[in-house]
Fold each of these.
Amino acid sequence: MDIFCKIINKEIPAEIVYEDEHVLAFKDINPVAPIHILIIPKSHMENLNDIPEEGDHQYILNAAKIIAKQLNVESGYRIVINCGESAGQTVFHLHAHLLAGRELSWPPG
Ligand code: 5GP
């Protein structure tokens, strides 16, 4: 079982900032910005390639919008989804990073 499934099952702790029927969001253990939240689907998917072509998977982005408002960063935040090892994915349970609280340069590394 991957580490994020264990967080969903409350087998390991996390600082949860948002939860609904479909997603869980919690603080990243190794933040790269003053605000660094991970938003994960409760159902296991390895990465973005696993999202079915049909069906409503808007819930991750909906959660991002709600969390950005909750944390007062609506005016500037970034959502990052690393898909695959060469893109920097290290945990193989789909997750979106919500980054905010500092200037975010472009292009990313
Ligand atoms: P990736 O590199 O796969 O896009 O992102 C994985 C993220 O998960 C990293 O930013 C890493 O710091 C975070 N992470 C890994 N293990 C844990 C953990 O046990 N708890 C929390 N809160 N974050 C974790």
Amino acid sequence: MFNLKNRVAVITGASSGLGKQMAKAFAEQGADVVILARRIEKLEELKEELEAKGVKCLAVKCDVTSTEDINNAARLTKEKFGKVDILVNNAGASKDNGVLDMTDDEWDFTIATDLTSVFKVTRAFANIMKENNYGRIINISSMYGLVGNTAISTVAYHSSKGGVVNFTRAVAAELAKHNITCNAICPGYFETELTKAVLDTNEFQAYMKGTVPMQRYGKEGELNAAAIFLASDEASYVTGAVLPVDGGYTCV
Ligand code: NDP
């Protein structure tokens, strides 16, 4: 089960953190991997690492807020591999602020990077999936897409990630007739470039101990099994699902 050999997997935001971890995990399952991000030098390093695992890899510089970049990445993927089987919408960033203080620019930045990008990337790559009547779309939302929180004021992030959850359901319903599934993963607290500065503080660790039943952050690699499951042939009847991987944060 869960063999991804001969599958082509596209992962956005693969230059660091969870995206990089998932790219490695997909390659280990045998998938050829298309890695996208803005820091092309980091992607080139990862490409070498992935090719050493015996799979093919295409690295493309792509800002997920740019329709032009996205369509270019989709074109290059089609040229190299002729198809797309798996898409992981993982790229994300946030300008954190509360509703009372958030500026228009902070709001627009976060919605563009975390929600509108997911629509644009899905549009580009799902059109290729449709040609082959096969697809697995996995959207990396967040547990913050399911609830509010009392630790950090980050209203635009909650809004965009909540949007990703219902975008997932809408796309699942629309594309089922093309044999394309669409599911969301909602990670909890994982230490990455995005979160390290906040998660490392004593104050936040104390907050985490009181709110995460497992009393720890997610470890490197702990998101991979969920992504591989949803990307697999075997998950053929799972669509529109929202899977928290959060140590229990959203169950209490
Ligand atoms: P990182 O900051 O480590 O990685 C973010 C990735 O997104 C980088 O590869 C970055 O690449 C890419 N990215 C950011 N903006 C853009 C852009 N405009 N265009 C293209 N790529 C972009 O963060 P994580 O690995 O932690 O986050 C990955 C996803 O997981 C995000 O969607 C995040 O919201 C979500 N998540 C993370 C959690 C955590 O605790 N870590 C918890 C819940 C959700 P580059 O800068 O090279 O473009």
Amino acid sequence: MQETTRDIKSMTLEELAGVMKENGFPAFRAKQLYRWMHVSLVRNYGEMTNIPKAMAEHLGKEYPLTTVRMIDRQISQLDGTQKYLFAMGDDSLVESVFMRYKFGNSVCISSQVGCRMGCKFCASTLDGLYRSLTPSEMLEQIYEIQRVTGERISHVVVMGTGEPLDNYDNLVRFLHLLTDENGLNISQRNVTVSTCGIVPRIYDLAKEELSITLALSLHAVTDEKRREIMPIANQYSIAELMEAGRYYFDRTGRQVTFEYSLIRDVNDSSQDAQMLAELARPLKAHINLIPVNPVRERGYRQTREEGVRAFEKKLEKRGINVSIRRVLGRDIDGACGQLRHRHLTDQKQETVSDNAGE
Ligand code: SAH
């Protein structure tokens, strides 16, 4: 776990009570601070009106509050989806997305700065992994969007940049804080964590007693094909992944989701649909079809619309619960990691031209 001894926004209420004691403040202050940070969502100690000034100053020095800075925001003219680029305290950049649905507002957050999983179709991995995010940095993406939009967030998906199970301890701490009844109190049932399939961590997550949804990024139905597009498949077979998914379902009672990005002529044949149905059936898994979002650097193409619908029909005919991911924000940098990647590329180009000018 990353150091949380000074990162006050990553602390549980009990840990906060410990900090109050260590610093000679009364215990009841812990709950006040916690509310200011996780319910009122203030940005700094100065806004905490019932905290004595001297105490606020002391905490400000010893326990700086994690915040994120909005660097860019794109709003889709088509559906109101908002894509955010945030800078962390060390200027690392991450993306988050705000989406409005009938059932509420959903935020998709990043769990790492970059990613080291190397999936071939994904823009997030193009620049590799820089570092993992702390629990407070994950929370702040949601908090800042709630501040900026003034709208309550009811759903959270950990499907932005990064592999959440490659940042396991911070993820679990984040999930507890996010769904804590003393904090933002988002229902665990409204939280989804998506993984490329780090099998041992799936077993660990199943044992955490959290009622969150697990999404498995499958994207191929044979080990051979999966290895071509997802390096993690060299470590764990589809059979092992299915067994872990089964364990998660049995242990938590939560239906798992398979994510399946349709890539033209790669994984979208009739036989693929048939085999996918066979994998989903024993787990009663829900399948989420995503027409692959083309990433300039990769060259994969989307399955045509008719092909996507035909693929869906084939699954439905076999009694599988399937949905096609609504494509939101088509007019903004839609694919995972594209906004950040574009900014990084722009920066590099600026550096190059700066140097050229010297
Ligand atoms: N690392 C996690 C979560 C991040 S991505 C995971 O692998 O699940 C969230 C989902 O979007 C994953 O299913 C991922 O495979 C998929 N994805 C990534 N890039 C994509 C693209 N260009 N088009 C469609 N889906 C993509």
